[in-house]
Amino acid sequence: MPEAISEEMWFFMYLLECYAEFKTRPTGDVLREWDERGMTQEIYDGYFQYHQERLENAYDDIDCLMETGQHAALHPEYWGRN
Question: What is the reported pTM?
């Protein structure tokens, strides 16, 4: 019998789909870019922060990670961009 999907994985897939739709990009392209930049695990590990806030805060953080390699908490200029 297959194991149930974890809450973290469910949210990660939801976040990936929503982020891709928000950016009007195919989901596979977004995931590929995250993988190529080595960010996928970092974003997955953001579950405890991301699931407690509005989804747009996660978008801000992901954009900041992609552009600076650091979380948005260290870059106030990214707060509220999305």
Answer: 0.87
